[in-house]
Amino acid sequence: MKQPIKGFSKLSKEGKIEWLVNEHFENPEEARELLKEYWHSNEKRQQLHDDFIENTMTNYFLPFGVAPNFLINNQLYTLPMTIEESSVVAAASKAAGFWLKRGGFKTEIISTTKVGHVHFNYAGSFETLSTLFEDWKPKFYEETEELTANMRARGGGILSIALVNKTDVLENYYQIEARFETCDSMGANFINSCLEQFAQVMRADIELRTDLSAEDRDLQVVMCILSNYTPECVVRAEVSCKVEELNDDKDVSPEEFASKFQRAVRIAEVEPYRATTHNKGIMNGIDAVVIATGNDFRAIEAASHTYASRNGQYSSLTHCKVENGVFTFWIEIPLALGTVGGLTKLHPMVKLAHEMLGDPNSETLMGIVAASGLAQNFAALRALVTTGIQKGHMKMHLFNILNQLEATPEERDAIVKHFTDKVPHHNLVVSKFCELRGIPVPKSGVNKDK
Ligand code: MEV
Ligand 1 centroid to 150 CA: how many Å? Predict the structure, then answer.
């Protein structure tokens, strides 16, 4: 049985690798070699990556692709996309090309406010707490003046502070709810620092209030934390054109396409099973740009899905209408993104991604990311309601199988040609590969399709 290790974090990087490969691998040599093979050849760059997190062993590569021809608010962008899934970049590029000829994407920032809470217990009366809060409120602003100075100079800061009574859902539970404008930064550190300062004010003040009863002084701060749910930091992206302009290489009329497409969106609006997959496709486009631009994709995911459930049932993030012969398709999504701070100036590829986009501010980036999500959803639905998604998907899947098989360029060409008009299921590709090499088909080589 494996034993826990004490003091792992204190070991050197080499020491950690030695422990890891000896403890967890049948062939430590091979594991060690692979871990080191993925080190950056430039020591300084490697050090940078080592320092991003704790216990770094090596790097984990994801492809960095680009999707050109995104016309967003009449500006042409090439989107950086970091994602492991085949077909996503191709789909984004295809949708961008489609809408490029039809006016492109239009985006609008609906709001940019973020929220944080001091969650606390209070056993006294709400009346006393309300009076205490009125005393605390100016102090919250005063005691955070130093913290907020830079943000205020940039036009941001604390927008409002309120006391919220949550005792209807949990006994003795209250919140100090603050709303913030964090300009071009995602703002997590700024918000959390302000909230912790509020808590200090509360603790210090209650300590001194010997005039109050024991019950009215019974206050415990549970935690101070921003909320990743940002329903007031929302962007809308839209595409639209006349129905007749939806003509394409597909075998359906524009009217039939518009009607089937609208129906597909409607299904995602009312059916959570479909909404989950539908929104997953949207997140393919969102996350890829969010990761490439060094933003926190977990926060974006969490907020998006809460937003998608805001009316009590998980539903589609995109919507579609056909009115007076005009097809309109749009997304509304909370995107708390930063273009300063965090990884944005640290990670060389993130810096490159920002430069590629013309060093956008956070509002412009919100529009770009929303457009990417909308494009992805458009591409997915377009394929789903016409040819089905497997055709495009399987082509990329074929390349992945060929890489796995370590096919030579000649073998690749022959196999790609062979599958031009056939669906490249894993077992069929392996069989064809073995046939070309004149080797028997291995039993483990079949039925690996997702
Ligand atoms: C696959 O990653 C995403 C799709 O399933 C999205 C969808 O079904 O809309 C194609």
Answer: 43
